[in-house]
Amino acid sequence: MPNIIDISVPLQSGIPVWPGSTGFRLFQTMRMDAGEVANVSQLETDVHIGTHVDAPWHFVSGGKTVEQLSLEVLIGTAVVAHLPQINAVTPEDLEALALPPNTQRLLLRTRNSQLWANKVSEFQTDFVALTADAAQWVVNQGIQLIGVDYLSVQRYYDSPLTHEILLGAGVVIVEGLNLTDVTPGLYDLVCLPLKLVGSDGAPARAVLIEKDD
């Protein structure tokens, strides 16, 4: 049985959320210990929470919504690359990775992942993310899915251009991955967002499956 690595962030109260987000709340509306017949919970959250997928409609008028995303893109071979000592992902950083030819899915492990490992609940504005020209590099390489290890693929103080370039080209964005201690290399990725009809994004469960040698 191949090793399966869960790279999803647990959804629970106290996780970091984007400023202005409604956050995450799970509460029980029925409780067996209160004499009711079952335990029943209710969820209050926005869709860009924890590990989640951005659909083109997030920044592209008329773009695909999350239920229209291709499962063939969300499942398949992915490259996990480690960029440990950078503050922004540039085209030069990506070029230096010397990715395998025809890479379709790229997950970037940076110092961000240590925030998940350390259970840092406060939102950090200095997280590592892609510059706009790095986003264009991704598009030019024909990469169909890009994953990052904090809550946004673009830097906090940047314009939406990074998102617009990627989503405008149909690149699926996966944000909020926890890649702590994931060894760089090739894996099988399974990333399944909730099938929310008409939504600009959705929380996802994402796992890596180690490939046989």
Strand content: 25-35%
- Structure annotation, total helices: 5
The counted number of beta strands is 10
Quick check: average pLDDT?
A: 97
- Approximate helicity band: 10-25%
Taking the sheet with the most strands, its summary is:
7 strands, mixed, barrel
Low-confidence stretches: none
Large-scale geometry: globular
SSE series: EEEEHEHEHHEHEEE
- Determine Rg (CA atoms, Å): 17 Å
Identify the strand order in the major beta sheet: 4-8-7-6-5-9-10
Straight-line N-to-C gap: 13 Å
Structural class, by secondary structure, is: alpha/beta
Compile the SSE list and pairings.
Layout: E1 4-6, E2 24-30, E3 40-45, E4 52-54, H1 71-74, E5 75-82, H2 91-95, E6 105-109, H3 112-117, H4 132-140, E7 145-148, H5 161-168, E8 172-175, E9 185-193, E10 201-210
Helix pairs in contact: 4-5
